[in-house]
Amino acid sequence: MSLEPAVWQALGTVLDPELDEPITDLDFVESCTVSPSGEVTVGLRLPTFFCAPNFSFLMVADAYDAVSAVPGVTGAVVSLADHHASAEINGGVAAHAGFVGSFEGEATAELDELRHTFLAKAALAGQDRLARPLVDEGVGPDELAGLTLADVPDSMELRRLRDRRMAIGLPYEDDAPLLIHPDGSRVTAAQVPLHLRRARLQRVGIETNGEYCKSLLKTRYSEEAKARA
Amino acid sequence: MYEKDGEKYFIVDAHSHFWDASKENWVEGKEQFAKGWIDCFYGYHQLGPPETHWDWEKYLKVTPEDFERDMFVEGHVDHAIFQSTYLKEWYKEGFNTVEQNAQLLERWGDKLIVNGRFDPREGDAGLKQLEADAQKYKLKGVKLYTAEWNGDSRGYKLTDPEAYHFLQAAQDLGIKNIHVHKGPTIWPLDKDAFDVADVDHAATDFQGLNFIVEHVGLPRIEDFCFMAVQEPNVYAGLSVVIGGLMHARPKFFAKVMGELLFWVGEDKMTFGSDYNIWTPKWQVEGFVDWQMPDDDQFADYPRLTTASKKKILGLNAAKLYDIPVPQELQLPTSADEAMQPGEELVEDKAGAQA
């Protein structure tokens, strides 16, 4: 059986940490080939030459880990093209050097804290995605403050929110409140209006970045741009 | 000045450039960075309306005549503020230095303000240069690009002790407007380079300075808004917001404008075309015509009035820079005035209805 679908599925679990979307949906995977012996070669690309090196590193490293974990894969090479730090990132991931080892003298820590920060942002934005339709139906602050995740109909968005919360140690089970502060505590009815303002702003922020990135990627790899290069 | 439907708008383009990204100016051995930088800009350029797109070659460097036409003849701009960005690691004579910008002062000195820059990593020599620039160009503002590469360093924070020396010096020299432009790199590289927490601290510690965060902190508009609501001397520079979203992503433009109007307010937002990433003409005209959509999802965002547009397009920046505005075009704005933070927001007491 061909390994390719499983490899693509694995790549689909890799998120752009800033945009909270899979790199496969974002069209960041330029190529993916699997040799008969199970060697996988993945080429990644990003919207600009100067995309932040820390997030870029995370995507390459996560893609490497995800692909390597697919049963039957015997080896993986993941490389990022057309980026100002391609050499450091590709070399570092291949050598399992970590972020600090890949950017010697430039970094003082691995990227766990950075990842945590962006999962927390995604978990805030997710509250707007789930609560906004309820607000539109006329559900008020008192009721919203009392809702738990079990009260919200199952959806991809709900599962995404649970995943993000679980990853950073926030309450994610059925009895967890729908609206929570960054420390996991329940948002009170009086705090609901401003909390929802914040959650929406967070969502607008992430989604606007996503729109920029998609536009820039499309332009960067357009026929016209290829003709110029 | 721009006139539409009997209303007159005094236009201050608070974020513009006169850059040289021509191949002759690329540093040998660093060509890929010089090209990568301008290619990145060219990507943004293409988010404008197709009829405003230029050839890549032309985009590398415009002439003074291009500048005059695009800004003052066709662009409706009354007054432009040049923001300097050096990038001497990649561009031999710099990408967009004070000296380059100042060449145009001789021709349009009554319509141009040249902002300086500093780099806290340049120590005493940098401080002396800042003093000299401040005297020579009567600086009222500086632009700081925190992701600028300098030797082995990939950037800095405003809270670095050296940066505080420079901010103090700027304040002492009468430079009151600090334009902060975040980029993708920083030291240390494991931190989020776009985080504006350092601006938050600096704005608290330097109450005599105004901090204009360019492209409203994008891609961290949420961090920027949470900060700006608490810091009355923090402003939203709209460069890239109008240019990058109004045409290409109108729905997101409306949302971003709505968020800014709510959290930051119309007295603290300033227009910048980011010339020549884009030309000002279509941005000014489009913004004057723009209205928040009637759709339900935008219902609880503040609305823009003609007066709000006049302030955003020019009167706020004119006040920050003491630019004289003809009497009949003036409107009151609280820009550049000491204010209290948005307390009702900070203390969780109010906000819009859920």
UniProtKB/TrEMBL annotation, chain A:
It comes from Pseudonocardia halophobica. InterPro entries: FSCA_dom_sf (IPR034904), MIP18-like (IPR002744). This is MIP18 family-like domain-containing protein. Residues 6-76 form the MIP18 family-like domain.
TrEMBL record, chain B:
It holds the Pfam family Amidohydro_2. It comes from Pseudonocardia halophobica. Residues 332-354 are annotated as: Disordered. One of its GO terms (molecular function) is hydrolase activity. Residues 12-323 form the Amidohydrolase-related domain. This is Amidohydrolase. It comes from the Bacteria. InterPro entries: Amidohydro-rel, Metal_Hydrolase.
